[in-house]
């Protein structure tokens, strides 16, 4: 608790008030902390939900899986309460630093030994987890913590350099979160609570350094110790000089790495400058051919009595325009087309007072035109989903600011801003429904990225790298979940389609075997109701195809025994076949768990009918008669029958005419993971990707970006839709790369140069 000599007796302990002259600063700091921690907590709970989902999917037992699903349910129910109470405690601590620490100590004092004995194991594990994460955070952000503590102490009446306060100390943040979880009656066992704490460490405490940095900037800008720079001296290890010596190679390696990175950045910048110079030459050639700037090597002649603004001034003007755009709501369904040249001219004219009027240099105009052409392609690219296109359209001015600072944007595919745009476009290729955006995680994430760029980008390229890293992590989590769902969908659909084919083949075979013969009711019931199931399962087991041949052989033997005329040789064969035949029939029905009582009854009736047929056939056979079937069917005959049944099914499934060949070839080029867009008769559209093609039937299974099946088509059906223009194949390549290629090609074409 912080106290001071000026505290009146009526003030409650720990109720330190902030100084009057810093009321506005305190309010801004409060808003900063509330907004940043609110965002971090939301992301943390989303990540926890994903973690429990993954754990449940990989659980070894049903009990373990249920525990993880229950934990996920608890999080979803309690998260709003936990977030609200945490932010309330944070606000109270910022208003009166030290109050909550006293509450925690008081609560600890109230725990008696009996209570402690019941919870000591769980409490010990939680305490160890909290101590570990706090120690790590204090070590990682020691400098930011010292600077913030020194500055923020100036806000409060009873704090000073001798008695500092820090309402954003990691210990307070971590223990407050734990206490709020306890108060919310979060019903989870210790294992799940530790997972939650680990997620809090990863998604909240690990980012507290950024909040402290922003807090330091805010306080310094308000004039509170603006020149303060408290360094943190890294202590040598316990080995003394040996530790110092061992650190030197690491420092040297770090220097080498920094030098290599600097060299790489310089090379990329030079390549970018060279590419931009080539593009300027093409644009100058176009201007020259249009009759403009005939002199001065194709460049516009310098205008008299004007002031060409520097990059710094152009950057500032664009920042002003960016701020205006950031004030517009992002939740729109229309692409924002910005005429940057006209907007800049208006802004520069509004700023002109005395002296020569400000104007853009030819290089700046070329740069603006180039970025405008890039975004013209991006905003007309059919492959980019409409909702993502709307959001990306807001980034035209920030990307122009990036290009002003770093021409490597044009030449370096791994440029942070370029990577981020490509990642956003790729992630959104399968998303097209505006109506679902408010409850869609992907839309919220891209919305947040655009919002942060518009509000936070001030020339520091690390913002794009940070956003790209965060978005990659988000996509990895989402892709893992979608992959699991898609795998299950694919396996289910493959099994279903194969089962349908097996049913058709078995039905055709039995129909062919039973035609032309007068089989008794017992045989018909056995074959159609029971033995068809045996054949069906045997057909599905492709790894042991001989099993299916055996089931067909049983059908042939049964029909022969019930339909053939029998001579002396036939009688001997009949007597030899029937016992094994009955045994095979009974064994097969048992293997498929056919009704035991029904099986027994069918076998009894079949024995009776076989015996009756044997007596009748033997009595009617003359001494010289030959058997209708000389022996058991040969494998070649069986194979021919099976192939005939399969071919009949295939002919029924697909009849290809010559007009479809071209489109079928295009369909066959689709590989799993390729995206397409379907247009329905009612005018609506949806996007999906090919999950798998089932070779045996040519069936193509398409899923949405969540891995759920949305459509099933045969090759011929997709080809027909393609010919009618109702399906379009989408291109998933890098968005900015495609835009750069298109702009270069277009400029070369217009300028008359060879591509």
TrEMBL record:
Source taxon at top rank: Bacteria
Natural source organism: Allohahella marinimesophila
InterPro entries: DUF1631
Name by which UniProt lists this protein: DUF1631 domain-containing protein
Pfam families attached to this UniProt entry: DUF1631
């Amino acid at each position: 608790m912080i106290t001071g000599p000026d505290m009146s007796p009526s003030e409650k302990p720990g109720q330190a008030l902030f100084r009057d002259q810093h009321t506005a600063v305190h309010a801004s700091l409060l808003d900063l902390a509330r907004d940043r921690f609110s965002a971090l907590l939301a992301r943390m709970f989303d990540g926890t939900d994903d973690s429990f989902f993954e754990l449940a999917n990989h659980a070894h037992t049903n009990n373990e899986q249920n525990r993880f699903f229950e934990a996920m349910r608890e999080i979803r129910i309690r998260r709003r309460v936990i977030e609200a109470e945490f932010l309330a405690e944070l606000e109270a601590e910022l208003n009166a630093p030290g109050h909550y620490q006293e509450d925690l100590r008081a609560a600890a004092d109230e725990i008696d030994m009996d209570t402690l004995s019941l919870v000591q194991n769980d409490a010990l594990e939680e305490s160890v987890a909290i101590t570990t994460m706090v120690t790590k955070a204090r070590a990682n952000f020691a400098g930011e913590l010292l600077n913030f503590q020194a500055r923020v102490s100036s806000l409060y009446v009873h704090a000073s350099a001798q008695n500092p306060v820090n309402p954003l100390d990691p210990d307070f943040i971590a223990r407050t979160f734990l206490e709020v979880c306890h108060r919310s009656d979060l019903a989870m066992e210790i294992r799940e609570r530790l997972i939650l704490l680990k997620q809090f460490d990863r998604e909240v405490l690990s980012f507290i350094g950024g909040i402290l940095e922003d807090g330091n900037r805010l306080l310094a800008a308000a004039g509170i110790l603006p020149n303060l720079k408290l360094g943190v001296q890294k202590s040598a290890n316990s080995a003394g000089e040996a530790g110092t010596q061992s650190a030197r190679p690491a420092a040297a390696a770090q220097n080498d790495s920094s030098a290599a990175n600097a060299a790489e950045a310089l090379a990329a910048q030079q390549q970018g400058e060279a590419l931009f110079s080539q593009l300027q030459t093409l644009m100058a050639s176009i201007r020259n051919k249009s009759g403009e700037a005939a002199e001065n090597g194709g460049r516009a002649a310098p205008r008299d009595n004007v002031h060409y603004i520097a990059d710094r001034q152009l950057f500032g003007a664009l920042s002003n325009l960016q701020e205006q755009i950031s004030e517009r709501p992002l939740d729109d369904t229309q692409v924002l087309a910005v005429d940057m040249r006209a907007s800049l001219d208006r802004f520069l004219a509004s700023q002109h007072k005395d002296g020569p009027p400000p104007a853009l240099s030819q290089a700046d105009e070329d740069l603006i035109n180039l970025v405008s052409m890039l975004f013209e392609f991006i905003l007309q690219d059919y492959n980019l989903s409409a909702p993502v296109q709307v959001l990306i359209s807001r980034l035209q001015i920030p990307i122009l600011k990036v290009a002003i600072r770093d021409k490597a944007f044009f030449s370096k595919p791994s440029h942070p801003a370029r990577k981020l745009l490509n990642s956003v476009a790729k992630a959104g290729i399968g998303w097209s429904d505006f109506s679902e955006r408010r409850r869609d995680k992907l839309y919220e994430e891209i919305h947040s990225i655009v919002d942060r760029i518009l509000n936070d980008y001030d020339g520091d390229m690390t913002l794009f790298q940070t956003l790209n890293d965060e978005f990659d992590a988000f996509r990895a989590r989402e892709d893992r979940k979608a992959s699991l769902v898609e795998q299950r969908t694919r396996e289910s659909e493959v099994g279903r389609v194969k089962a349908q084919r097996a049913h058709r083949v078995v039905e055709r075979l039995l129909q062919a075997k039973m035609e032309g013969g007068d089989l008794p009711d017992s045989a018909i019931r056995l074959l159609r109701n029971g033995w068809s199931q045996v054949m069906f399962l045997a057909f599905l087991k492709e790894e042991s195809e001989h099993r299916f041949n055996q089931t067909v052989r049983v059908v042939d033997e049964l029909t022969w025994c019930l339909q053939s005329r029998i001579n002396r040789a036939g009688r001997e064969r009949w007597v030899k076949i029937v016992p094994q035949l009955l045994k095979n029939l009974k064994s097969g029905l048992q293997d498929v768990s056919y009704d035991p009582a029904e099986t027994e009854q069918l076998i009894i009736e079949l024995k009776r009918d076989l015996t009756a047929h044997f007596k009748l056939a033997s009595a009617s056979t003359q001494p010289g008669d030959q058997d209708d079937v000389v022996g058991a069917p040969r494998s070649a005959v069986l194979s021919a029958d099976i192939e005939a049944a399969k071919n009949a099914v295939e002919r029924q499934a697909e009849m290809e005419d010559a007009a479809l060949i071209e489109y079928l070839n295009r369909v066959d080029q689709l590989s799993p993971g390729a995206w397409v867009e379907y247009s329905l008769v009612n005018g609506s559209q949806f996007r999906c990707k090919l999950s798998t093609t089932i070779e045996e039937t040519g069936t193509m299974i398409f899923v949405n970006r969540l891995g759920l099946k949305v459509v099933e088509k045969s090759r011929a059906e997709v080809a027909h839709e393609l010919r009618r223009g109702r399906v379009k194949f989408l291109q998933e390549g890098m968005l900015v790369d495609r835009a750069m290629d298109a702009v270069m090609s277009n400029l070369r074409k217009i300028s008359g140069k060879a591509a």
